[in-house]
Design goal:
The structure holds 2 protein chains of 2 kinds.
Chain A (H helix, E strand, L loop, with lengths): L13 E7 L3 E8 L2 E4 L9 E2 L1 E4 L4 E3 L1 H6 L7 E3 L12 H4 L20 E3 L2 E3 L1 H20 L2 E8 L5 H13 L4 E6 H13 L3 E8 L4 E9 L2 E10 L4 H15 L7 H18 L4 E6 L2 E6 H13 L2 H11 L8 E5 L6 H11 L12 H13 L3 H4 L5 E3 L6 E5 L3 E6 L7 E7 L9 E7 L9 E8 L12 E7 L5 E7 L4 E6 L8 H11 L3 H30 L8 H16 L4 H32 L2 H12 L2 H13 L9
Parallel strand pairs in A: 1-10, 10-11, 12-17, 14-18
Antiparallel strand pairs in A: 1-2, 2-3, 2-4, 5-6, 5-7, 8-9, 12-13, 13-14, 15-16, 19-20, 19-22, 21-24, 22-23, 24-25, 25-26
Helix pairs in contact in A: 3-4, 5-11, 6-7, 6-8, 13-14, 14-15, 14-16, 15-16
Chain B lengths: L2 H4 L10 H15 L9 H22 L1 H14 L13 H19 L3 H31 L4 H4 L3 H24 L1
Helix pairs in contact in B: 2-3, 3-4, 4-8, 5-6, 5-8, 6-8
Classes of the chains: A alpha+beta, B mainly alpha.
């Protein structure tokens, strides 16, 4: 179906929040000031993140899952685990019964691709199918779907984030923001309870584990630290249990079909053991039972892997477990009693689970989408702001293969940083820049994000050239890298193209393929998007003219008004390029005015702290030693910590 | 970029971090990209670059090493600041560091959590000493309108701060490994 239907002019588009999960996905929106999940008539709120590629067509969700026992290779489950992964990634191969495309068969060799029938599909395309289904479910309930916030595990790296954003684009969604899942959960809780304090979010999903420490203060959600493991989740419990079931059933070489059935049996046992002490299973002719004690022993290694990241997140935040005001559980796997017991034992606090742990992330995403789009909650005066962080350090490989960290983990985003390098050989005319992500000291132990070369540097003795590399991370947590050789001014800018990601061209091609009439539909879509953007800019500019009247210079207003009129005129034609040109012209003419308004807003924000400046004088009177002492304690997380180990 | 100017704070090493944090928050509320989602592109770009500056400034000021570096750099000592350019700390101090490091290695080898804890305390004490020494070397000079010539004496103290910070980090990593 044509994608531009999302711009149906009759119904007012509503922003949506999407939890694109490993096992299940959900979509939610804000209805009369409250976040609500979308349910469909068959399967309730949860859409299994399963896609079946059949000869007759594609199925998503429950219908796809039913195909899994018969068609394990054509039914892709837990696709999230493959997002942003390379074809040669060792992790990839052990993740299921799939047939992967060989290097000559896939159009894109770097990205892992599944072979389904005669075609190959990438994880981005599989995820896009799930997103389309969610979008359609939302449209059935609310009429018209507006922009979307999609959640990602906080611990997702750059490649995984890029892949998710592409999937949204491919599904025809305007992706307002990628939001970290634990932050979304906190948003759902925070708005619900209007509490101030420090919280830890423990998010154990199907395939990923995230832990986030954040502080809520007067509507500002400030993430202090985040950590986790992007390959740890409830699926690992299922696998451990499935292995036990296969071994109890005396099956030594299991076919993909049998593995899938054993995994289904394991999942059923896991769910049953949440409420009862013994659960039975059947696999073909074999049957048996498993007690909760046996289960606990089997999954303990998985559950224990969460403890290290929890401790490190607390330490990075400079917070002691006793100082936490609450622990929030997210993800279906946190229903398992042993997980709850472990959390309580490690943090000494009974966790909160008032909101359904399967729904809380989608609800929070809906809240954020609504706030960002300036809808109901924002109009009701909810003054909420999220300050999130980069989950993993970003750096560059330097001589000797060392990863030089340019932006350390847990830096508040958006952010930027600069570093200068030089040549190590005489007459070196190029720099190879290798961008890596991770905490390890050696670049080869970190995740490789991108490689690019800055060429054309004139021959100079070693150490003479000056290479300035700038990193910028936007509010989605996505990285842009810019490099310039300052003695010659030779420069190069790259959107970090993940080593395992898709290029802009490949993306465009996928988008064309997804549309029924290719080029023609793409033109319609660009036109619709251009008009929406033009309307938005005109409205915002007019508001700016009203609010910032005092900051206008003589003769400025008529110029701006003329540019607005020209843009209005352009939107009446069917030429997306003309709309873009007129939008850019308006942008240019309002530039100085925008800058004056921004400076005015900054001056007002600084003046707003004058009351606290009184506190500041008092504090200053304490003297340097007291400050240093106070700072020391804040940095190290306070004196209490000394007693803990 | 002058991080003190970005957050409208007096240029001092002994900075009021509570005020700095409050100002960072206040400016973030004004400039965060989330506040400009529906805004025209030029406002979005401007807000983004200012928000980046504000976050960079707060990151530079909250960390005592970066804060000292910023002050010395802004006072015209750019060419003398930086790990490879600074003079090595005194022999007596290096001895202290080496002893602490040996103690750490031994504690790690014997997996002795209490001893690692001891090194953490020791590193913290060294860090506190170095910070206090830097404050005494920098702030009176700035208060009296002094410049590069008088501030040069602070550079070796910055080196001590770096050593202490590294020791603390290693000790805390060892603590992690023992958990």
């Amino acid at each position: 179906m044509p994608l531009f239907e999302i711009f149906d002019p009759k119904a007012k588009p509503r922003p949506i929040g999407i939890d694109l999960g490993t096992t299940n996905s959900l979509v939610a929106y804000v209805k009369q000031g409250r976040p609500t999940v979308v349910t469909d008539c068959n399967s309730g709120a949860l859409v299994p993140s399963v896609v079946f590629f059949g000869e007759q067509g594609t199925l998503v969700g429950e219908l796809a899952r039913r195909q899994a026992p018969e068609h394990p290779r054509e039914t892709i489950v837990s696709v999230k685990r493959f997002m942003g992964r390379g074809a040669d990634d060792a992790e990839t191969r052990r993740l299921g019964p799939y047939e992967f495309a060989g290097p000559d068969e896939a159009p894109n060799r770097r990205v892992v691709s599944f072979k389904v029938h005669q075609r190959t599909v990438t994880p981005v395309e599989v995820s896009a199918e799930i997103l389309k289904q969610l979008r359609d479910n939302a449209r059935d309930e609310i009429g018209s779907v507006g922009p979307a916030v999609i959640t990602v595990p906080a611990y997702f790296d750059d490649a995984q984030r890029e892949a998710t954003k592409y999937a949204g684009k491919l599904a025809g969604l305007e992706v307002l923001r990628l939001l970290n899942e634990p932050t979304a959960a906190a948003l759902a809780y925070g708005l619900d309870q209007k509490q101030n304090g420090t919280f830890l979010v423990f998010d154990l999903g199907g395939g990923t584990f995230d832990v986030t420490v954040l502080k809520l203060e007067d509507g500002v959600f400030q993430v202090k630290s985040t950590g986790g493991d992007s390959a740890l989740g409830g699926d690992d419990m299922d696998r451990a249990l499935a292995e036990k079931i296969l071994s109890d059933a005396h099956i030594e070489r299991a076919s993909p079909e049998l593995v899938r059935r054993a995994l289904d049996a394991a999942r059923a046992v896991k769910h049953a053991l949440t409420d009862v002490a013994v659960a039975g299973w059947e696999l073909g002719d074999a049957k048996g039972e498993i007690t909760r004690e046996q289960f606990d022993v089997l999954v303990k290694p998985t559950v224990d892997r969460t403890i290290g990241p929890v401790r490190r997140a607390l330490r990075d935040a400079g917070v002691d477990a006793q100082e936490l005001d609450g622990v929030i559980l997210v993800g279906g796997a946190t229903r398992t009693p042993i997980v709850r017991q472990t959390v309580e034992r490690v943090l000494g606090k009974e966790p909160l689970a008032d909101i359904d742990p399967d729904q809380v992330v989608a609800l929070g995403a809906a809240v954020q989408a609504d706030l960002l789009a300036g809808e109901q909650l924002a109009e009701a005066g909810e003054d909420v702001l999220l300050l999130d962080v980069v989950p993993l350090s970003l750096g560059i490989e330097t001589m000797g293969g060392i990863a030089d960290k340019i932006i350390p983990r847990n830096t508040t985003i958006p952010t930027g940083a600069r570093a200068t390098f030089t040549t190590y050989a005489d007459n070196q005319t190029g720099f190879e820049i290798h961008v890596v992500q991770g905490e390890r000291e050696l670049a080869s132990d970190c995740r490789s994000l991108a490689r690019f070369t800055l060429r054309g540097i004139p021959p100079m003795p070693a150490g003479m050239a000056r290479l300035e590399v700038t990193f910028k991370v936007d509010a989605d947590g996505l990285l842009r890298v810019h490099a310039i050789e300052t003695t010659t001014g030779k420069e190069q800018s790259v959107d970090v193209q993940p080593t395992y990601g898709l290029t802009e061209d490949e993306m465009e091609q996928m988008l064309l393929d997804a549309l029924d009439h290719g080029e023609e539909d793409l033109l319609k879509r660009r036109l619709a998007e251009g008009r929406v953007e033009a309307e938005r800019v005109i409205l915002a500019t007019e508001k700016g003219l009203r609010d910032g009247k005092a900051l206008l210079e003589t003769g400025e207003e008529p110029q701006i008004r003329a540019a607005i009129d020209a843009l209005h005129a352009a939107t009446r034609n069917a030429d997306p390029d003309a709309i873009r040109v007129a939008t850019e012209a308006l942008d240019k003419v309002t530039g100085p005015f925008a800058e004056r308004r921004m400076n005015d807003a900054i001056a007002r924000a600084i003046a707003g702290r004058n009351v606290e400046d009184v506190d500041h004088e008092v504090a200053a009177a304490k003297g340097v030693d007291a400050h240093v002492e106070e700072h020391e304690q804040r940095r190290r997380g306070g004196p209490e910590e000394k007693g803990s180990s | 970029m002058d991080p003190f100017e970005t957050l409208a704070l007096p240029r001092r090493f002994g900075l009021d971090l509570k005020l700095a944090e409050a100002r960072h928050l206040e400016l973030s509320k004004t400039l965060h990209p989330d506040r400009y989602v529906g805004a025209p592109p030029n406002e979005r770009r401007l807000a983004l670059s200012r928000a980046v500056e504000v976050n960079e400034a707060w990151r530079a000021l909250r960390d005592p090493i970066k804060r000292a570096e910023a002050i010395l750099r802004l006072s015209g000592l750019e060419a003398e600041v930086g790990e490879t350019r600074e003079p090595k700390p005194s022999g007596a101090f290096l001895m202290e560091v080496m002893e602490a490091r040996e103690a750490l290695e031994e504690a790690k080898a014997s997996r002795d959590a209490a001893r690692v804890e001891g090194v953490v305390r020791e590193a913290r004490a060294q860090l506190g000493d170095a910070e206090r020494a830097l404050a005494r070397a920098i702030d009176p000079v700035l208060d009296q309108g002094g410049g590069a010539a008088e501030l040069r004496a602070a550079i070796p103290l910055l080196g001590r701060l770096r050593y202490a910070a590294r020791l603390l980090e290693e000790a805390r990593n060892a603590e992690d490994d023992l958990m």
